[in-house]
Design goal:
- This protein has about 140 residues and is an alpha+beta fold.
- It has one domain: 3-Layer(aba) Sandwich (Aminopeptidase), CATH 3.40.630.
- A hairpin with a 4-residue loop joins strand 6 and strand 7.
- It is globular and about 40 Å long.
Length: about 140
Amino acid sequence: MSVTIETANEASDELVQAFADLIPQLSQSSPPPDAAQIALLVADPGSVVFVARLEGTIVGTLTLVLYLIPTGLKAWIEDVVVDGSARGHGVGDALNRAALSEARARGAKAVSLTSRPSREAANRLYQRIGFTARETNVYRYDF
């Protein structure tokens, strides 16, 4: 099975349902976004919502957030989630690499993210891709 990555550009029923299924796997304390919230997110020029598919089905998402500050363009990877049934198929790797490529193309010097230490597989993935741990447990990928 090959993973395909695309960017979301509308709050389709399929995307709303995917977030409803995926967000509880990421956070027990945050409810999934509704269609209106997703519409705002995908329309935001500072956010890029990546969607991963296996055999046509959405199995993961990642949001890349970009914002300009006086010292340059900052980029963060947020809310990475891969469905439990799709783990081990390279979905997380593909999502992250797509986000890094987009950030580089937009002129970001680095991409940062955070990950709880308990998410051991995710932390190994980030390090394998090339992120480096910082004292704050924030990861950065320098271009």
